[in-house]
Amino acid sequence: MTPPIARHHIVDAAGATLLELVVAMAITLTVGAAAALLLEPVYDLFRRESEANDARQRLRVASDVLRSALRVAGAGVYGAERRGPLVQWMPPVLPRRVGRWTPDPPTGAFGDRISIMAISGTALQATVASPMSSRGARLEVATDAGCPVGRSACGFTPGARALVLDRTGAWDLMVITDVAGNALSHWPAMLSKSYGPADEAQVVAADVQVLYHDARRRQLRRYDGDQSDLPVVDEVVEIDFRYVVDPAPPVSPLPSPGEASCVIDRDGSAVLPPLGPVPAPLVELPPSAFADGPFCGEPANRWDADLLRVRAIRVQVRVQAQDPAVRGRDARFFVNPGHATRSRLLVPDFGWELHVAPRNLNFGR
Fold this sequence. Notes:
alpha+beta
């Protein structure tokens, strides 16, 4: 008798029920949501610190540029008969923009810009050899002992930027356009006066830096007084220059014996009054104090005599984060409020104050 054949039912173990799928999806979503909630503060921290570090670096660069420019302010003439810092002739720092393009009025004074002049240790320097016949005439320079050997016009060449000044407080920034022998043609075509050796006029290759705040672009910019006007740092929202001055009246530029200048009377007494008991500590003045006279120099480039009192410059700089998503709405901490919605995202504006006392502004003090 044939035994019965066993019947086997095959069950597919790889399958899953709908309930199991729903439970697995719920677990996955729960774990994913928890991970996202845990990662969100980390992402916010990374975003905030990235923006904060960028702002700190911008503030550091702005501070370094300002400090480096101000420290050399007033470095003066060394190769001519009359040597010394520029402050003996004119103020090396001016609270306005000077130069070829969009200069400020000579009697203007602003808190968000400064013009700095200095003469480097290797700059070309020459005395004016003969009086100019007119303000538009060529400048004839002498080949003094400090001039390069075998080179006409003391080494000045077309395209060079120079400063011409004399002991009356007159000065002009110019670009040399042509050289013929020892005679220099210049731009602007008309200088502020006819310079000559009687007033100890000199022509020097000068370094000019105009540092200013472009509020529209939120930039610290640097202008060289001629063609170059470039951004230095972005996201700068405030710059404020203030001037620390000596209360004692200035005693230079010195006039010829028996003559008067804008700061020294004929009898040798000071024209400007002291700003308090002398001797006394330095005092701080806002830029507006340098727009009320008395004025020195020629009308085209005149300057307030109080600028000769300046001994130090105080600068306040403020930068902001670039991304408005990390800036809040409180105007106390944000010059330009943003739309940050979480406190852990906030990157307040960063500020820094510099106090620079250029040694060439403290000559003889």
